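Today's session is about reading a structure prediction critically. Students often jump straight to the picture, but the first step is always the sequence itself: look for stretches that repeat, for charged clusters, for runs of hydrophobic residues. Only then move on to the predicted structure, which in these notes is written as discrete structure tokens rather than atom positions. Here is the chain we will use throughout the hour.
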Amino acid sequence: MPMAGPAEAAIGKSGWLRTDRADLWWAGPLVTAIVLLSFVAYATWRAFTGGKAHNYESGVLLSPFFSPNLGHWFNLPLWLSPAMLILPFPGGFRFTCYYYRKAYYRSIWQDPPGCGVGEPRKHYWGERVGPLLLQNSHRFFMYAAVIFLFFLWHDVWKALWPGDKFGVTVGTLVLGLNTTLLTLYTFSCHSLRHIIGGKLDCFSCPASNMPRYKAWSGLTKLNEHHMFWAWTSLFGVMFADFYVMMVASGTWKNFQLL
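Below is the predicted structure for this chain, in token form.
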């Protein structure tokens, strides 16, 4: 590999956002930052206001931001909504996700904002100090994300019984699609793929490893599209919450299709 010339070697020391690049290198990070920060703002707003307005549940529909509805199990104070206790876990799973790290390292953390573009700091911090030290907890957040999937699929099952009779509404499809996307995003996780078979040197010795190899192969196919599942599930969970909010407030009607 050829050594960098004087101009290339000096780019990192030229100052924040200083670069010789003439292309629109900033467009991608800017859009990513706007989308991610908008989602964080929306989720925070819903967590603090949805509980007071009680517009996160309508009949058999329950917003994924508030699932499981801890208010049915515990006597929560009025200021504490179920989402405040729930969102830190799926939020932590996304925050520490390997794909999202790349996305917000470039767009928000500016480390680096682009190839050959000056950074706002002179030294590499790594993930040894806060707040990036939290990245080392990704596997544990993944365990929590898998558990939450059981609650979300149970919500889909409940949504199949509007009026205590089997039926399919628009809300059923919204919750079903959202939970499917979240499942694909969770099961395409790099950490889950490693747990299944990443630490094995040989899948065929002994033969008992073959089921793990097949599972690892399936997760690998999902993992190849991890970025796609990350973005579609992000929009999916936000729309599912918005849909339930609109139905609960009486703004939208949850039409029955079947």
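Discussion point for the tutorial: The two ends are 63 Å apart (CA to CA).
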